[in-house]
Amino acid sequence: MRIALFVTCLADTLFPQAGVATVQLLERLGHQVDFPQAQTCCGQMHVNTGYQAAALPLISRYVEVFEGYDVIVVPSGSCTGSIRHQHAMVARRAGDEALARRAEAVAARSYELSQLLVDVLEVEDVGAYYPHRVTYHPTCHSLRLLGVGDRPLRLLRQVAGLELVELPDAEVCCGFGGTFAVKNADTSTAMLADKMRNVLATRAEVCTAGDSSCLMHIGGGLSRLRAGTRTVHLAEILASTP
Amino acid sequence: MSTPVYLGMPTAPRGVGHLRGEPFPAAARRALADSQLRRNLGRATATIRAKRAAVVAELPDWEELRAAGSAIKAGTMAHLDRYLEQLEEQVTARGGVVHWARDAVEANRIVVDLVRATGATEAVKVKSIVTDEIGLNEALAAAGIRARETDLAELIVQLGRDRPSHILVPAIHRNRAEIRDIFLREMSDAPPGLTDSPAALTEAARLHLRRAFLSARVGISGANFAIAETGTLCVVESEGNGRMCLTLPDTLITVMGIEKILPTWADLGVFLQLLPRSSTGERMNPYTSMWTGVTPGDGPQQFHLVLLDNGRTAALADPAGRSALHCIRCSACLNVCPVYERTGGHAYGSVYPGPIGAILSPMLTGVEDNASLPYASSLCGACYEACPVKIDIPSILVHLRARHVEETHRPTPEAVTMAAASWVLARPGRLRAGQRAGRLGRLLSRDGRIRRLPPPLAGWTAARDAPAPPAQTFRQWWRSRAGGTR
User: Which of A135, B165, B268, B438 stands the most exposed, by the fewest C-beta atoms within 10 Å?
Assistant: First the structure.
């Protein structure tokens, strides 16, 4: 299958390994990956901070770049959430009904990685090998906005060598929330403290998730504490082989 | 941008009532430092969350009930004018008197005049958020009338000269040792050897309040629901103090937000299933009081209904936010909110705290008067999932943030940053250049991490490391890759 990759501006700039892993994984499964180089950003940060007018050109670009593809993969639950639940809404609020309709059509073909694997490619065992103790943080937008359910866990359970440990209070937000972490840094830190406490209680070596942004937050906290637990994107685990 | 239609509608006036506070981040910072508060809230919300989850899971048709609740509210709001007039007609026909209050100032004046006309200098109150919204107790006190809270938690708050911090459990921020201290200090008839056992505390409050109930000539309440077809008012509660206030005094004054109306009794059936399970985590609340006008020889012989706007019409005029008015004050969203659980209700500066308060307060006051509240959320969505009438709180928060930005006409550093970011992200070439410039961030880093960033990102690195920009971006990797599929 020919799959277009929307790598997201965050992974492109700060976490390229998540994008690289997505490409390697999908190619290993026999698919052709396209990276349309005109892509930039989904606009979520602007929308969630209140700058919808500034988000509009980014949304319009996403639609233009990807509307020629049948299947688009996004290694981020929150960017997929923004594409699916915000793009058309922002276009409509700006009075651009035509863009809203196009955005809806592209959004319906845009999948978060675990959704793509389980629902579209119908694979749970991707042939990965990852001999580490791992805990999984579901991330709010994957969980509640996209409803990915246990798809990431089903994928992780098939990974050879991987010891999966349940994260206590897994469904509670880590406190990132985009600019929330800066505007309400104290509250965000209090939420992060509880998330880290739960991650550390699992004695896992790796905390994984389907979103580089939440991982940047949790990982930033763990790194500051020199806690000895690292964060790794789900795609990287699924791309690992012996 | 399409022109918003909500501009110009009167909002809740300043200088009266309790809908505004200091900016959320500052108030939250103080609350977060209170370890006793954190513990009290953590325990209480975890208990209510578990109870709610258990009783909601019992119902196979919970999602259908939520959908019905949402549809009834949407339908009612679409014809609010008609239902309100029907309610007035029915209440009047059954011996009640209806008063229309544009805002808090008018409502307070109406209630003060009504109490004065009875000659009473004291009134007993049923737990009511709307009367706290308008600052009624202060208005009564200024007129020499003592308002006595009779709900246990409201009594604790009133005696402690405190503020409520939760919609359902106003004293949730207090533990029982703190409550015992308040009673011993402020309640003249508290038994000297009072312990902090819940039974002893409740009994002390019960004896204290009994005297007030028996002597009261005026009762003041809010309303959970009003049924337009018969003019019936409804209050649900757990303690029975409400039943006392609604039946014993000769005069009953009910203050009700205009959004509390339901067209029919059949509609009420849906909400009496949704509300107790969502709020106290009970299948049914212990006391459901309903009254229709005046019944000669039974209960209050004077009944006044004050219908309050106080910014509700302005909220109704905003199509993207109006469903905030569907709220039935169950507080399920507070109990599941990770922000509320850590900051408590006082940080929101309004009688409506938590996720619902973060949308409702700015809609009632105008966004500029509560500009920090729409940002007091990580948009995790737990509130939307728990809401019994399916208010999409995260989407309304995002909408109110947009209203705030659009209504701010002076340029802010944030607006400049956002515009610059949008410019960079609008073209891949600019993004590549930005990424090249950002790589200078590697100079700040050690071992792949950055320990201190300048403002506005300093808040991030106060408690977290930031990742150093990698040697190669994804797009560079893609271009450099030999044998790639494209």
Answer: B438
Angle between helical axes of B62-78 and B80-93 (0-180°, round to 10): 90
Q: Is A38 an 8 Å CB contact of chain B?
A: yes
Please, which residues bridge with residue A232 across strands? Answer: A208
**Chain B positions in Cβ-Cβ contact with residue A45 (cut-off 8 Å):** 421
Mean pLDDT of the region A143-171: 98
Which CATH code fits A133-239?
Answer: 3.40.50
From its phi and psi, is residue B300 left (phi > 0), alpha (psi between -120 and 50) or beta? Answer: beta
**Contact list, A61 vs chain B (CB under 8 Å):** 426
Q: Which helix (H) or strand (E) holds A34?
A: strand A32-34
pLDDT at B2 over 70: no
pLDDT band, residue B440 (cuts 50/70/90): confident
Name all domains of chain B by residue range, CATH numbers in brackets: 1-409 (3.40.50.10420), 419-480 (no CATH)
Q: Which residues of B touch A148 (CB under 8 A)?
A: none
The pLDDT confidence band at residue B486, using thresholds 50, 70 and 90, is very low
In Å, how far is B142's CA from the nearest CA of chain A?
Answer: 38
Residues in chain B: 486
Distance CA B52, CA B67 (A): 18
A55 lies within 8 A of chain B by CB: yes
Nearest CA in chain B to A21: B474
CB-based burial, A79-90: b 16+ in 10 Å, e otherwise: bbbbbbbbbbbb
| pLDDT class of B447 with cuts at 50, 70, 90 | confident
Beta-bridge partner residues of A197: none
CA pair distance B221, B104, nearest whole angstrom: 15
Measured CA to CA, the distance from residue B345 to residue B335 in angstroms comes to: 11
pLDDT of A72 > 80? The answer is yes
The answer, yes or no, to whether residue B485 has pLDDT greater than 70, is: no
Distance from CA of B402 to the nearest CA of A (A): 4
CA distance A158 to chain B (A): 27
CA distances from B456 to A43, A185, B28, B320, B344 (A): 19, 11, 19, 30, 26
Q: Between B338, B403, B466, which is nearest A191 by CB?
A: B338
- Residue B32: name the closest of B42, B47, B43 by CA: B42
Considering CB atoms only, which of B421, B459, B470 is closest to A185?
A: B459
